[in-house]
Structure formats: C-alpha cells, structure tokens
Automatic annotation (TrEMBL):
SMART domains: HTH_LACI (SM00354). Residues 6-60 form the HTH lacI-type domain. This is LacI family DNA-binding transcriptional regulator. GO terms for molecular function: DNA-binding transcription factor activity; transcription cis-regulatory region binding. It comes from Ponticoccus litoralis.
Length: 331
C-alpha cells in the first residue's frame, strides 16, 4: 500500500494556520510573521513535509529545472565545467537536469525536446548544435537557451565563446619565441568550433610569418590520438621541435610518445603546448604549458543569464584564455 504524501494542507492543520500561510512561508520573499513561520516550520519538520517544486511550477510556469546537455562526460575539462555549472545552479536555487548525448546535432535535438517536455526553464548546451526552428520552439515555450563554445547563434540564445583563435596565435608566438623552427599542429577530427578555431589561429599566424607547419588531425580528441600522432610526427626524417595540441589530452599523449616511446627530452628536444589546463596538466610528470579555460567565468555568465528577459535577439559573450607557463616549453 502506497503511503499518502504529506501535503501543505496537513501542515496547515497541524500548525493551526491557513493553507495560504503555509505557501507564503515557503515562498522566498513572501510576507509572514515570525511566530507563524515558526509554527509552520515546526509542523513541517514533525510531518516530514517537503515543498513540491514541480507542482508549484505548474502554477507559476517556473520549475527551477535547467537541462545540462552534453557529451563526453568523462573528459577532465567537461567534468570540471559541469561541476562549476552545477555549483552555480544550486547557489541560484535551481536544479540541473543532466542529459547525456553524443556529439551529433540530432542527439542534441532529442535532448532539447526532452527538456521541453519536462518543462525546464532553460537549457545549457555544451555539445552539438540545435537547429534554428527548435531554438524558436524553446523561445516560444519560455525556455532560455545558452550555447557554450558553439559556432552559430540561435534565436533567443546566449552564446558563450572562448577566444580560441587568439590562443592559437599566442601558441605560435610562444613556440617561435622559444626558438622552435619546425612546428606542428596536433588536432582531432571532432570538428568542433573550438578546436577548429584554435587550429586556424595557429596556422594563420604561421602563414602570416611565412613559416611552414605540419598539420595533423585524426580520430577522437583523446590521449590515444595524441600518443599515435606524437609517435608519427616525432619519427619523421625532420621531426618537429615545437608542437601545439588543441587539447591537453592530446598534448599528454604527445609528451608520452616523445619521452616514453622515443626517449626524447621535453622541452630539450621538443616543446609542447596544450589547451584546457586540466588537472593532469599540472602534474609534475607533465608540467604542461597550456591555455587555461575560464571555467568559472563561463559558468557565472551562463547561470546569470537564466533569469534575464530576452526579446529573441541572440547575445554573445567572448572570454579570453590565459597561457599558463610550465616546463614543457623552453623559455
């Protein structure tokens, strides 16, 4: 037999107050006398009463639910960003609803439809890209849409980007300043806007300086890809002495290919720069020079936007990265 859930009416009867008084007591900012609040809280604790926010959301049209839509949850950078977003949402009195997807746009579209069905107030998209028509559906349903490191704007959305192209240019400048003359770029075939902009910034800076570089891109954005590409690059007849990797996972693989497989010195034989500043980058075994993603600033901007009104005009925030100098590059 299923036990009946304790209701606000039960609390009101035990406390000897009206049902409306109970509602005000659990509504932030609502007016209720200290004596009445104390009686209600005591009755609620006695009965084990919890506010049903979903039921309240049906009345107010605000559930406090925010969908977090992303893929590759096990990667260090993605885990750190999700943790920061979850912390900010909880501090703002909201609840994150995690929807795991692959990187395809179709998967993101299915996730967004789920979010609409569960009456989420907003969706923060970290992977893939929803179509314009689906973004308009979100807007019509009062759902705020935040796109992180995506490549296109959508109606009513906030697009938060990192200046990846500038980081690529800085990587080229840092390697050439370190005396590297044979440069290489290591990337995956993920094709995300962030990875492509980092690669484009690096190759454009090289072209402007009249420097030829070796560009490589295969497989997933993983340690194994970096290990394989590092082995391939560093066994060439004229191996690179400076490598920019579009993520730290790729860079860690490249460094292990150099040191463990080929017995090369980093940075004596080859300098390496990564991107993300994942925890492993700071480990003494890597001491990787890398660009730090502004994770806290991304999370702050995303959550701060959730309660703002929008007229349907897309908005954009571009945040800088910071080069963290460690021991994987000659200085």
């Amino acid at each position: 037999m299923t036990k009946r859930q304790v209701s606000a009416r039960d609390v009101a009867e035990l406390a000897g107050v009206s049902r409306t008084a109970v509602s005000r007591a659990f509504t932030p900012g609502a007016s209720v006398s200290p004596e009445t609040r104390q009686k209600i809280e005591t009755a609620a604790e006695t009965l084990g009463y919890q506010v049903n926010h979903l039921a309240r959301g049906l009345i107010t049209a605000r559930t406090g639910l925010v969908a977090l839509i992303c893929a590759e949850l096990n990667t260090p950078h993605r885990s750190a960003l999700l943790a920061a977003l979850s912390d900010r949402l909880q501090a703002a009195g909201k609840v994150g609803l995690l929807i795991n997807t692959d990187r395809s746009d179709d998967s993101v579209a299915r996730a967004l439809r789920q979010a609409i069905a569960y009456r989420t107030d907003a969706a923060i998209v970290l992977s893939g890209m929803p179509g314009s028509s689906l973004a308009e559906t979100c807007l019509r349903n009062g759902m705020r849409l935040v796109l992180i490191n995506r490549d296109e704007e959508r109606p009513g959305s906030l697009l938060i980007r990192v200046d990846d192209a500038d980081a690529g240019r800085q990587a080229f400048a840092a390697l050439t300043a370190a005396g590297c003359r044979r440069l290489a770029l290591v990337n995956s075939l993920a094709g995300t806007a962030s990875l492509e902009d980092r690669a484009r910034g690096f190759s454009t800076a090289a072209a402007e300086a009249g420097v030829e570089i070796v560009e490589t891109a295969v497989g997933q954005t993983s340690y194994q890809t970096g290990l394989d590409l590092g082995t391939r690059l560093l066994t060439r007849p004229a191996p690179p002495d400076g490598i920019f990797c579009t993520t730290d996972l790729l860079a860690c693989g490249v460094m292990d290919a150099a040191r463990t497989r080929l017995r090369l010195d980093v940075p004596g034989d080859v300098s390496v720069i990564g991107f993300d500043d994942i925890p492993q980058a700071g480990w003494e075994s890597y001491a990787l020079t890398t660009f730090r993603q502004p994770i806290d600033e991304i999370a702050d901007a995303a959550v701060a936007s959730l309660d703002t009104e929008t007229d349907g005009t897309p908005q954009r925030v571009v945040l800088p990265t910071r080069l963290i100098w460690r021991a994987s590059i000659r200085r």
